[in-house]
Write a structure and sequence with these properties.
Layout lengths: L3 H13 L2 E8 L6 H9 L3 E4 L8 E8 L2 E7 L11 H12 L3 E8 L3 H12 L5 E6 L1 H6 L2 E3 L1 H8 L2 E4 L8 H9 L12 H11 L10 H8 L3 H10 L3 H17 L4 H20 E3 L7 H9 L6
Parallel strand pairs: 1-4, 1-5, 5-6, 6-8
Antiparallel strand pairs: 2-3, 3-4, 7-9
Helix pairs in contact: 4-12, 6-12, 8-9, 8-11
């Protein structure tokens, strides 16, 4: 049996280890993300508030194959680039970090909705892993999911879990050791793809401009434009970027953001339809429902 002293010593060792990178837990609201976070990090958890914000970020340490990672559990979001306080903080976190892994937690019952966010996250060009959580609830509704089909279509590892019971957590830990960068990104109409390439090919100061940020420039996201102006582009390049942006938006009559979302939704529908099937669920009789109620530990 491991003593409390040994556990305390191990936790201290984890705290003192050099951080190999960051794992950012992302997901739509109410997908069981925090449950997965606590199963991964156990007691090594801290709460922090970003400056001038009431939004709470939970962070913890995770030892993977002898390397220590900082895990950050962010609030539930529907998009990286919306303007709620939570989404702005998440965006600033991603902008401020470079060496990170995206761990997206998905509600298996609401696969299509959550896959729309997956399509957006993949465009960041970072190592990523998808967790199909609440598999027990999905099965109760007759939803059968082929995780291999999702893996092949998204180009990233996919792990099934039942977070509140700890099922699949060991497999998740193993998969986090070697996450993949997806090459299976959403395809857009030719004029949008050309705009992305032209923006990415502009001379810039450092790093590389990923597909997600190039798209945000094209749809005239003022916050991203201001950030990139300071970080990536000089004055001359910003003028060229503006010319590209205006040309692309003129082609689409300024409906570019709607077209991008439409393509992501179509992609999510395609993945869902090729990876799930619905089985008939037997409805419980009145007697079965009454029996369950009568045997309930509280109400029975």
């Amino acid at each position: 049996m491991i003593s409390e002293k040994q556990v305390s010593k191990k936790n201290t060792e984890d705290e003192n280890m050099e951080t190999a990178g960051i794992i950012i837990l992302v997901g739509n609201p109410n997908v069981g993300k925090t449950t997965i976070f606590r199963k991964l990090c156990k007691k090594n958890v801290h709460i922090e508030n970003p400056k001038d914000s009431f939004v709470e970020l939970s962070s913890g340490k995770l030892n993977l194959n002898g390397r220590c990672y900082k895990v950050i559990d962010i609030p539930g979001i529907n998009s990286l680039f919306a303007n709620s306080e939570e989404e702005i903080i998440v965006r600033e976190l991603i902008l401020s970090e470079d060496n990170y892994i995206i761990l997206q937690v998905v509600d298996a019952k609401n696969l299509r909705r959550d896959l729309i966010l997956s399509c957006e996250l993949i465009e960041l060009g970072k190592p990523m892993l998808l967790v199909l959580n609440m598999m027990d609830e999905a099965l109760q509704k007759g939803i059968v999911i082929d995780e291999k089909a999702i893996r092949d279509m998204l180009g990233i590892e996919v792990v099934m879990t039942i977070g509140n019971e700890g099922e699949g957590i060991n497999e998740l830990r193993k998969s986090l050791i070697t996450p993949r960068v997806s090459e299976n990104q959403t395809s857009y109409p030719e004029y949008i793809e050309n705009g992305i390439i032209q923006i990415q090919n502009l001379p810039h100061k450092n790093g590389c401009l990923n597909r997600a940020f190039a798209l945000q420039l094209l749809i005239k996201n003022s916050g991203i434009f201001e950030y990139l102006g300071k970080t990536f582009f000089g004055d001359k390049e910003l003028i060229q970027a503006n010319q590209i942006i205006e040309k692309v938006n003129k082609t689409d009559n300024n409906n570019l953001e709607l077209e991008i979302m439409r393509q992501r939704v179509l992609r999510a529908i395609e993945i869902e339809s090729n990876s799930t099937r619905i089985l008939p669920v037997k409805k419980r009789t009145f007697c079965e429902k009454f029996s369950n109620y009568a045997c309930h530990p509280v109400y029975g």
